[in-house]
Amino acid sequence: MSTWAGISTALSSLRTQRVAIDVAGQNIANVNTPGYVRQRVDMTAGIGVNVSAISRLHNGILGDRSRTESAQLQNLSIASNVVNDVEGVFPEPTTYGFQEKLDALWSSFSNVARDPNNAAARVQVLSQANAAADWLNNAATELEDITANYSSGLANLVTTVNGYAKELSELNVAVSQSVENTQAANALLDRRGYVADQLAKLVGGSYHTNDLNQLSVTLGGGTLAGPSTYATLQVASAGGVTSLQWAGDSTTATVTSGAANGYLTAVNTTVDSWMTTLDSVASALTTTVNAVQTTGFDRDGNAGANLFSGTTAATISVALTDGADIAASAIAPSGGVASLDGSKADAMAALATAANGPDELYQELVVSLGFAIQAADQAAATQESLASSITSQIDTESGVSIDEEMANLIAYQRAYEAAARVLTAIDAVLETLINRTGVVGR
Amino acid sequence: MPLIDRISTPSQHLQSMDSLAAAQNRMAQLQEQVSSGKAFQRASEDPNGAQSAMKLRAEQTRMAQFANNIDTGLLRLNAARIQIDSVNDQLLRVRDIVTQGQQTNGLMTASVRSALAEEIDVLKSSLLIAANADFAGRQLFAGASGVTAAYDASGNYQGDTNTITARVDPDSVVQTQVNGTEVFGTGAANAFAVLTDIAANLRSNTPANLAANLVSLDAVMDTAREAQATVGSRINQLNELKDLTSDKEVSLAGALSAVEDTDLSKAIMELTLQQTGYEAALHATASVMQPSLMDFLR
After folding, report:
1. B147 to A117: CB separation less than 8 angstroms, yes or no
2. Rounded Cα distance, A363 and A92, in Å
3. What is the pLDDT of residues A23-41, one digit of tens each?
4. The model's pTM
5. Are the Cβ atoms of B65 and A402 closer than 8 angstroms?
């Protein structure tokens, strides 16, 4: 064995412990960096010790599951946001909801029934009818606004997705050109994992890593980002249906999860379905009131005309402008004298409790919306606990623990000190050999 | 990969923050319940409760209308009762005059009978005023007709036979008027025709005809008394319904409060519990998050 072997052994240890301390420092520095995977110095014994790799403590299977679950979480939480937004349109039970408008309308009919000759009571019916129709018009507008908000959310999302897809393919190229198991390569992988996680949250998709450690993202059959290529998405709207398209050939991109699916469902299905239900309330109001109104006689003895026109929430309006036109009487005029009967007004007041009348349909809407919200919130909450349990598993493997790094630092520092001591010892031995031997009789 | 469970530093912080946020959420919810006094703010917090509340509020509005209907009905019936009472009094006076006119002693001369006839005319026009009384713009005794006078100057009925009713609950109505024919009789036998005939017989000084008039007059008086009884019983009915309706209003208010108001003592107790829990979570977080190995290394 060479005399100098001991020195290089000590030197290799000094070098290795230095690297280990660097890596611990890197871990501590990135304790709060999203997507950072903790690193460890793998040491092997040879002559002295060598750094064989700086490995990333990353579990690919958990990563894939986490992407699937967090994509679904985004999907479900947007579904829950939508119904909660819709509920904002129907503030019940309060004194400014539609129920209150209906109550006031029926009440005003009662007033006319009690006193058909009272012009003020008749005008009051018209103003209450206008208030109810206005409320429905506003609700329809607000529902359309919700759809518009989610549409613009989808447009923003697509811009972000396109940016990430480009970055992911660029990172793939960079990874394939970098030297494996170095800090630089690890940093690229961390960033790529982070970008992939973000993409999953936005559009879902499948994630596949090939033999060359290149990650591709596919949506349905189409590739969003490949080893060196990427595709661009765009929002398309045709026939009232919004979808995501590949910008290249304008074919539909299949989205089944992620925020994008949440937005698409909101825009295409959810809000529309509540609009349809609200329309049925408006339609019931128009048809039930008009049915009674047109069988009665107004204050001047003329046959009653339609009070409401329009059968959707957006289009319902009051067709009459003169209080005298309220057909309160069931009795035809006799001898040119209009009857002061009020039984048709009473019948209209009684529509408050009509089966399948506006009140009943509106109450059903509020109740089924309430249950829909509970179900959507529950689904999102369940998914959140599932997703966060996977996140915490990932964190258990890949997250940085400062305590652990501190303990490692101590171990590496002590090892460094010990290696330095070994060097000192060898130096002392050589000192003895070189300077203290062969000096007899000097 | 079941290693020893590592806990990374950020995840420890995240978990602490999550549980603090959850505790804060629960507290905020209870605080809202206590400060707003409502058990739920949004229908989705209790869909069934929200529906009950909406139904009960609608019911309250309806019930208030029924109460109004009853009050107005009572006013209208009382107005009719006052008129019918005075009609009865005047018919009694007519009867006195007729019996007076029937007397055949020397004092009862043609001129006296003629004076009596004048009084009958006055009574007739006063009956006509009563018959044409209105209440809130509608004739009291003209049925549901929109005519401005139930009887014309010659005492012919101008109204119809329809009724005015007040809705007192979802399924029933109470008639709040009597028609002129029910008070004054019908056709040639009505009060005005009888009075016209009496006046004519007095003027023509033919007391023998007055006996037949007396029979017709008694029939008219029976009709008027019957109307008085009918109106009285309808007033009684409405008074009873009024009590019933106000009882119902009270019980509706109670039911609504049970559905949508906060059970204060329960909510405040839960709030206190949550506060204790929140403070405990704060303490736990403080003692978990502060120390790290660095505190113990020199």
Report:
1. no
2. 9
3. 999 999 998 888 899 999 9
4. 0.86
5. no
